[in-house]
Amino acid sequence: MSATSYSGVLSQTKLLGSNLNCSTHRRFPTSCRLSEGSLDLEKSTSRVFLSSCSSTSDKRNGMLGRSHHCSTIEKRNPVGQTFCSLGVCTHSRVDVESNSHATEERVGVLLLNLGGPDTLDDVQPFLFNLFADPDIIRLPRLFRFLQKPLAKLISVFRAPKSKEGYASIGGGSPLRKITDEQADALKMALEAKNMPVNVYVGMRYWYPFTEEAIQQIKRDRITRLVVLPLYPQFSISTTGSSIRVMQNIFREDAYLSRLPVSIIKSWYQREGYIKSMADLIEKELTIFSKPEEVMIFFSAHGVPVSYVENAGDPYKDQMEECIYLIMQELKARGTFNEHTLAFQSRVGPVQWLKPYTDEVLVELGQKGVKSLLAVPVSFVSEHIETLEEIDMEYKELALESGIENWGRVPALGCTSSFIMDLADAVIEALPSATAMSTSRNTSEAVDQDPMRYVIKMFFGSILAFVLLLSPKMLVAFRNKLF
Ligand SMILES: C=CC1=C(C)c2cc3[nH]c(cc4nc(cc5[nH]c(cc1n2)c(C)c5CCC(=O)O)C(CCC(=O)O)=C4C)c(C)c3C=C
Ligand SMILES: [Fe+2]
Fold first, then answer.
1. How much distance in Å is there from the Cα of 205 to the middle of ligand 2?
2. How far is the CA of 133 from the centre of ligand 1 (A)?
3. Rounded to an integer, what is the distance from CA 99 to the centroid of its chain?
4. Residue 141, pLDDT score
5. Which listed ligand is nearest to 347 at the C-alpha?
6. Which has more pLDDT, 246 or 32?
7. Taking the CA atoms of the chain, what radius of gyration do you get in angstroms?
8. 465: Cβ–Cβ under 8 A, 6 or more apart, which residues?
9. Contact 107, 197 (CB under 8 A)
10. May I ask which residue range the UniProt record assigns to the signal sequence (predicted)?
11. How far apart are CA 412 and CA 382, in angstroms?
């Protein structure tokens, strides 16, 4: 549920039409002229004036005192002079209510993340949730009814290996704790910028689930919501999946479907993020005896190739651009190290994005690279793939392959420059919040036709039988590819 949920009340005095051009897209339905999180002021013809007052009492921290303050954000069209200004004023509630436009505004920020098992007993059910996600195992529509049985099978097969991994990092995932800390830090950063908000944490595959966070948002009568996935780059399998869950819930609910929402789909290109990453890399390089000789080795979580080539996942492009921007920033600071990008954590019998981290490490060792700095780049908190896969498996492989000096950049976590930048991203996204699309897509309508459903099940069963007994699947299970 909410990591940082307090009864902050924001009274908005004015909100003049945020007339952003939003279109409905089949897979990523909310595609606003929001240029991935930052308001595209040059194109925008809207003028948004948001003056907010707060009257807060923090239940969590047991604060009894109430404070009243007011923040102003102004965004104007290209002919206007003021693009973004934050001002602070103080006035009483009566003043607010005397305004004819007065409505009570409660701003929420929903942090989306993957979630991870808290204990070893959670591992198999967590894996089940993950593999039951049609954005993780993308079965053809005809096979969709197989999703859950397949998820059960794969999760049971994979659980022992995953459990070993989680056991080696302390018996569970640190994700919940770190995400809660990030939520607290973000709330404080926003308060420091005179933007009191409730921050909620919604995990995709484990507690606190996205569904719970959304229920809490509803209970708190949030009136404007910014959705901030904690993945810098967009992938269908991560941000896309969480947004799909959100949209399904929002569509069915009268209150939520009218709630103005702004989704920050990716933010890898933000200056604050790039600079924070460059800071961490620079700092870690100084630990090596010859920093200039260190190969900067970006290791990103992979996705199956089909996501990029068939489904149009922008993940690979965004990842490459992200690395380019980080390297440009380092060059601007006088750091000219060589670098490379590889993809880790592949699962199952399909082709994943290449080159693979393990193969590149061996090649680099063979080529005579002696010093290497691993940089996890697809995620902003420590998790099993940094603490176990990189710090243990890949480090061992690198040292065996001839690399002598190994280092690893920590995940950003609660690095203050990073959190401040996320806070800015939220503030910039807020004025463009619009109600989510409520239209049902046609393929879902087909699922509601009983005759079509029976036909689909009949042919699907035959195909499923063939698929499950296909040599590829049998080999995958036998070779423990899951
Ligand atoms: C940008 C980050 C991630 C992408 C893209 C991603 C895609 C993806 N992942 C799997 C399968 C698994 N992922 C697992 C854990 C896991 N994945 C991410 C991030 C991305 N996944 C994180 C942060 C974590 C760790 C959570 C934690 O508990 O610390 C797991 C479980 C662990 C294991 O058994 O290895 C699986 C399985 C697929 C199939 C996929 C794309 C289709
Ligand atoms: Fe993953």
1. 11
2. 12
3. 38
4. 85
5. 1
6. 246
7. 24
8. none
9. yes
10. none
11. 8
Percentage of the chain beyond pLDDT 90 is: 67
Band (378; pLDDT cuts 50, 70, 90):
very high
Q: Which ligand is nearest to the CA of 171?
A: 1
Among candidate residues 332, 241, 340, the one with its CA nearest the CA of residue 297: 340
CB of 329 sitting under 6 A from ligand 1: no
| pLDDT classification of 375: cutoffs 50, 70, 90 | very high
Q: What are phi and psi of 217, to 5 degrees?
A: -60, -40
Is residue 324 classed as helix, strand or coil in its secondary structure?
helix
Q: Among residues 230, 265, 231, 272, which one has the least CA distance to residue 247? A: 265
The separation between CA 313 and the C-alpha centre of its own chain, rounded to angstroms, equals 14
Q: Report the C-alpha gap between 430 and 425 in whole angstroms.
A: 9
Ligand 1 centroid distance, CA of 444 (Å): 27
Please tell me the distance from the alpha carbon of residue 135 to that of residue 150, in angstroms, as a whole number: 14
**How many angstroms separate the CA atoms of 73 and 70, rounded?**
10
Task: Output the CA–CA distances (angstroms, integers) from residue 164 to 172, 173, 341, 384, 386, in the order listed.
Answer: 10, 12, 27, 11, 15
* Amino acid (one-letter) located at 130: L
204: number of Cβ within 10 Å: 23
Read off the pLDDT of residues 271-299 as tens digits, 9 standing for 90 and up. 999 999 999 999 999 999 999 999 999 99
Q: What are phi and psi of 72, to 5 degrees?
A: -125, 125
Ligand 1 contacts CB of residue 352 (under 6 A) = no
ipTM: 0.95
- The response to whether residue 301 sits with its C-beta less than 6 Å from ligand 1 reads yes
Ligand nearest the Cα atom of residue 301: 1
- Residue 370 in this model has a pLDDT that exceeds 80: yes
Ligand 1 atom closest to Cα of residue 169: 29
Cα separation values, 163 from 20, 124, 384, 481, Å: 47, 8, 11, 15
Parallel, antiparallel or unpaired: strands 434-435 and 260-263: antiparallel
**Which one-letter DSSP state was computed for residue 238?**
I
Atom of ligand 1 nearest to the CA of 161: 34
Cα-to-centroid distance, 302 and ligand 2 (Å) = 8
> Taking the model in full, what pTM does it have?
0.77
